Amino acid sequence: MLGGGGGVIRCKAAVAWGGGETLVIEEVELSLPQAMEIRIKVVSTSLCRSDLNAWLSHQIFPRIFGHEASGIVESVGEGVTEFEEGDHVLTLFTGECKKCRHCVSGKSNICQVLGLERQGVMHSDKQTRFSINGKPIYHYCAVSSFSEYTVVNSGCAVKITPTAPLEKICLLSCGVAAGLGAAWKVANISKGSTVVVFGLGTVGLSVAQGAKLRGASRIIGVDTNSEKSEKAKAFGVTDFLNPNDHDQPIQQVINQLTDGGADYAFECVGDTGIVTTALQSCCSGWGLTVTLGVPKEKPEIGAHYGLLLSGRTLTGSLFGGWKPKSDLPSLVDMYLNKEIKIDEYITHNLKFDDINKAFEMMRQGKCLRCVIHMPN
């Protein structure tokens, strides 16, 4: 990092200049944190599939991706009282203001003030904090952790115990927490139930881990990559199904295996067609389908009304229903007490200069989580 006048610093960041283009490690300027913002030295950050999907899109560029991260507070803006220099934090792609109707309702984690930011700017003034030669470089999910330093709203970070290993715990910023919460808070899986999980990436395997910890009797994992079969068993999957290995539609196979359908189905792929398949894989009367994936195309869901009329339920899940600032510290404690797995999702550890390798491995389906370690 190089210093700059007026609180501006210059640091290295992986900049995406266009959809699907190789990321370039550039020197960027990062402004002083504004009111109610903090500047974070990123320690570790991992690649999530939503980063990959957005990178492959034709959305806002140039951009700095990354949202699943851990770091240390470098400086704080005016009005910030809950953080101070040196605090260890996790970044949050969806924040919690604790004051809006949703935050105080006890029914929702969709903050009306600090919810998903899709325009690549900060919540407060709709401006960027990154630039190169005066040209704005856009943010991603209000975090942009593929940078040595970043600025976030103080509501988009949570303070954690300094005893937690930052190079591991960064996975709770998104994927692992999202899957566990979908199983526990959204579906509230009951002991002895039957569960089917479509998509065995980090989120799907976190759903499986959550189902196992809740005492599900059968956890069926569905994925078109048969290489995931053995790995899935470590997270609780009891039966593995590859749709390509069956002549029948996979929902029919599942219905036969479960005497009429699973109690719970989870769509963790980001394919709205699979949402319908998941609904068809649930039992009538009480079957619950939870969709977690973010679709790359065809966002509309189509399903015969009879699936719902017969008692099946479809619901969505953002970040597993967790109120991020309120709930994440308890998940960190569970990890430290060895009550939940995180390390096992990390298949690769990479240097910042090798970030493009992470994108390529995820693109080819050869990893779960690649953790990218920033320079000291």
From TrEMBL:
It comes from the Eukaryota. It holds the Pfam family ADH_N. One of its GO terms (molecular function) is S-(hydroxymethyl)glutathione dehydrogenase [NAD(P)+] activity. Keywords: Metal-binding, NAD, Oxidoreductase, Zinc. Residues 203-334 form the Alcohol dehydrogenase-like C-terminal domain. Belongs to the zinc-containing alcohol dehydrogenase family. Class-III subfamily. Residues 36-160 form the Alcohol dehydrogenase-like N-terminal domain. Homodimer. Its cofactor is Zn(2+). GO terms for biological process: formaldehyde catabolic process. This is Alcohol dehydrogenase. One of its GO terms (cellular component) is cytosol. CDD domains: alcohol_DH_plants.
